[in-house]
Amino acid sequence: MGQQTDEREGAGQVEVRTRRWSVSLVWIVPILAMLIGASLVVRNWMQQGPVIAISFHSGEGLVAGKTQVKYRSVVIGEVTTVDLADDKKSVVAKVQLSDDARAFATQGARFWVVRPRIGVGGVSGVDTLLSGSFIGADSGESKTPEKSFVGLELPPPVTFDEKGKRFFLTASDLGSLDVGSSIYYRKIPVGEVVSFALQDDGKGVEIGVFVQAPYDSFVTADSRFWNASGVDMQIGANGLKVDTESLSSILVGGLAFGSPDFAPQAEPAADQARFQLFADRESALAPPNGQAQYLQLRFDQAMRGLSVGAPVELRAWSLAGSPRSSWTTTPSGSPSRWWSMR
Amino acid sequence: MNYPANADELGLCLCHGCGQACDLSSGAHACNRCGAAIHRRKANAIARGWAFLLAALVFYIPANLLPVMHTEMLGSGSESTIGGGVLEFWEAGAWDIALIIFIASVGVPAIKFFSLGLLLFTAQHRSTWACRQRSQLYRFVELIGYWSMLDVMVVALVAALVQLRGLGTIEPRVGILFFGMVVVLTMLSAMSFDPRLIWDSHANEGRPH
C-alpha cells in the first residue's frame, strides 16, 4: 500500500528496495496490544470470585462500590450494589468476592457491618469513624456453597476459628450480664458471654458463654459457675469482707467459675455442656443440696419477730433456704419439734 | 487552473533531513547532500497508520475500564475510573468540570480515532472527496495531539502533590498507563500518516499528464 507511489512515472528508474517480509513489522504493535488486552481480561476474569447477597436490617454506612468486605482487616470483596429487598423490610447488599475468598461463600459464613461502637466493655471499630463502615466476615465450617446470607446486626463475639469451648448456663435471671461480659477463672479473664436467651417456658434464662483455649480445660464436669457481678460485701464476726472479681466486672457484670475443693480431679467438660449458674461464690461452691421440701408449721405462741426469710436452725445449722439433705429426715422416727427463736 | 509542475513529474524528491531537492531520475536512493534516505511519501504510511490506530483502539478499552487513580482520604480509599469521575462530578452538580473531563478524556480520543480512521480509509481508497477539508482535519488531529496528555498530566501532578500520609494520598493506577498509551499510539498513527496522500489521487485525476 505504501509502496504504490513507486509505480508512478517519473520515478521509474528508481530501484525499489524490497523488504524480506511482505507484511509490515508495524503490525506487531496492534497484535501486542491485543495480547495485553486479552491478558487483562483473562486475569480480571480469573480473579473474580463469587457474587453473594447479604441482607441487612438497614443500609446505614453501606455504599455501592466503596464499602469493602474485610476478614482480619484484609479486603476480600467489595459491595457492588445496595438495594431494597423485595418486601422492603431489609436491604440487600450484593458483594463481589475476590477469588481467594471463595471460602466465604459457603454455608455458615457470617457477615456484619462494622461501625464504631462504644460500650461499657470497651470501644471498637474506631477506624471506621474516619474510613466509613465496612462489612466484617467470618467463614463457616461448611463447604456447601451458599449465595445469600443474612447479615448480623452485631458483630459475633467469637469468630469461627477461635479456639475454646462453648458452654450453656441456666440461671433464674440474667442479672447485670450482657453479651461481652467477661468470665473469670481465678480472677483472670478467660472468656466472655456470647449469647443469652429466655428459656422456652419462660422460667429462666440460658446464657451462652465461650471460654478460650487453653483455659477451657479448667472447666470440668465439677465446675460451678457463679455470678461475679458487683461487689459482694459481708459483715461477720471477723469484720467487713468485700469480694469482687475486677473493676470492670463491677461495672459490666461478669461470671466466674471454679471447682469446689472437695471435688476430685475431673475430666474437662465437653463442648456445649450445660451448667447451672449460681448467684454467688458461696452457694456455688457449697456441697450439692437435696430436694427442697416445704413444711407448714403451726405455732401456739405469738409470732412476733418472725418474718419471711428468717432462718430455721437445727443445732446451730441454718436449714432454711438450704436445708441439708442429711438433716431433713427426722432421726429415729421420733416426732420433730419446732419452735420459734427470738 | 494553472498548476506549476509536480515534483513527481520533474523526478524530484525533497530530502527529509536537509530539505534538498534531490533528483530521482539518476536512481538516487539517498540525499546527495546529507545522505539521508529519501522517500517520495512517508514509508508504508497507511499500514503503519492503521496498525497504530488499531493498537490505540485496543488500549482505549482498559484505559476506560480500569481505575486511573486511587484516592485515599482520611483512611477511606477509593479507585476512580475516568467515566466514574465524570459521573461523580456531574452528580455533584459540577457539570462544567464533568464536561471538561469528558471532552478531554473521552471525546478527544474518540474524535481522533474517527478522524484518523476516516483519513486512512479515504487515502487507501484514493478518494477525491473533500480533499481540502481532510487536510484541515489532519492538521486539527495533529494539533489536539499535544493536548491529549492532559489526563495523564493531571494524574501525575495530583499524585505528586497529594502525599499527605495520614490525611490523604493519591496514587496513579494502571488505567492511566493505558490512557497514555492510547495518546502515544494515536500520535504515532497521525505522525506516520502522510497528508500528501490525500492529494495524490486528486493530482492524478484533476491534472492532465
From TrEMBL, chain B:
Q: Which GO terms describe its cellular component?
A: plasma membrane
Superkingdom in the source lineage: Bacteria
Keyword annotations from UniProtKB, A to Z? Cell inner membrane, Cell membrane, Membrane, Transmembrane, Transmembrane helix
Q: Where in the cell is it found?
A: Cell inner membrane
Question: Which PANTHER family does this chain map to?
Answer: INTERMEMBRANE TRANSPORT PROTEIN PQIA, INTERMEMBRANE TRANSPORT PROTEIN PQIB-RELATED
* Protein name per the record: Paraquat-inducible protein A
Native species: Pseudomonas putida
